[in-house]
Amino acid sequence: MKDFEEIQPLPQIPLEGEEEAAIEQPSKWRAFFKELIDTVLLALVLFLVINGLTARVRVDGPSMEPSFFNDNRVIVSKVSYWWGDIQRGDVIVFPAPPSPDEDYIKRVIGLPGDQVEVRNGRVFVNGQLLDEPYIAAPPVRDMALTNVPEDSLFVMGDNRNVSSDSRAWGPLKVEDVLGKAVFVYWPLERVGIVTHYDLAGGE
Hints:
Elements: H1 18-53, E1 54-58, E2 73-77, E3 91-96, E4 99-110, E5 115-119, E6 122-125, E7 128-129, E8 143-147, E9 152-156, H2 166-169, E10 172-173, E11 179-186, E12 192-193
Antiparallel strand pairs: 1-2, 2-11, 3-4, 3-11, 4-9, 5-6, 5-8, 6-7, 9-10, 11-12
């Protein structure tokens, strides 16, 4: 005969709502991490796409004043010329011929096959005088008539008298163009769309 009976613990009965809460907690964490991963992946894809289609450059020096000033930050479209041709008056970015590790920003003055001349402080393309409201001052040096090769562009800085451009190192190969300047995003007081003038020049 047993002196006592072994007492078995009674099964715990969860209070109303406890079991449901215990099940929902892991589910909420899974949903949170899934949403976090989805957000990170989307941000990464957008970053890669934006980087593939655009570039950001910093203007260094006064060669494009008054259109751009030193330390202006500019967004460059790499795809603008996928469906359109380069035009006279476009502002483009390209590796600097004197120093390919740097990028230059200049304005297109002559297209392939054009003839460019600078005389008496004025620029002529195919014999026609360009109307250039964007320049800082007329160029003080003349340049003899120059033929632009069929695969090249003639580019100049808007601040003509302090610019290293095609007058110094010759025409720029079309294939070297990185893209078209489209938007200034810094400093805040200069935020805005880049103006591309429609320059005459004769065809």
